[in-house]
Amino acid sequence: MDIPLLPLCVGNQIPMLALGIGTAWFKEAGDTRFDQRPVDLIKKAIEKGFYHLDCSEIYGTEEEAGRAIQELGVLRKKLFITNKVDQGINNIPAAIEKSLEILHTNYFDLCVSVSDRQIDFAAEELVAVIWFISHSLPSRIPTTSVHGSQCK
Predict the structure, then answer these.
(1) Model confidence pLDDT, tens digit, residues 7-61
(2) Taking a C-beta distance cutoff of 8 angstroms, is the pair 34, 64 a contact?
(3) Is residue 90 in a domain?
(4) Which of 2, 8, 25, 75 is the most buried (most CB within 10 A)?
(5) By the 8 A CB rule, do 53 and 65 touch?
(6) Could you tell me the CA-to-CA distances from 50 to 34, 58, 116, 141 in Å, in that order?
(7) Which residues contact 110 (CB under 8 A, 6 or more apart)?
(8) Residues that are catalytic
(9) Residue 135 clears pLDDT 80, i.e. is over it
(10) What pLDDT score does 85 carry?
(11) Count of domains in the chain?
């Protein structure tokens, strides 16, 4: 399947369709049971041409996504991995490093920090952006997603 690519202003492209890794297999906090079903689906999706994987630590399925990537043996450069940070928002770099380890990869193509908590993101996220750049972890500049009520 040829999925259209959207050109980005930084010169690369993002697949316009992504496989969401969490909605169907979302795990409640503390649920560490391994589920083979997402592994099998992720592998089939990649084999069919879905190279954009939408992951998040809050889904609780990073281990399954990492296992699928490992088992399939797909070249990392073929994948576009988006990751969202929520639970680790108080230490974004540590949360990203943990997710990288769980997913068995050395970078994310796009990182988004999200939270519904009423806190001031600016300083922590600026530190995280500087950390990302200095460690050359993402191939794209990280972005932030906040709720409108937090922007007042």
Answers:
(1) 877 677 889 999 998 878 898 888 889 999 999 999 999 999 999 999 988 889 9
(2) yes
(3) yes
(4) 25
(5) yes
(6) 23, 22, 29, 22
(7) 14, 80, 81, 82, 83, 138, 140, 142, 143
(8) 59
(9) no
(10) 80
(11) 1
Return the CATH number at 142.
Answer: 3.20.20.100
What's the chain's length in residues? 152
- Rounded to whole angstroms, the Cα distance separating 149 from 76 reads 37
Q: What is the mean pLDDT of the chain?
A: 79
Q: Which two tokens stand for residue 50?
A: 């879905």
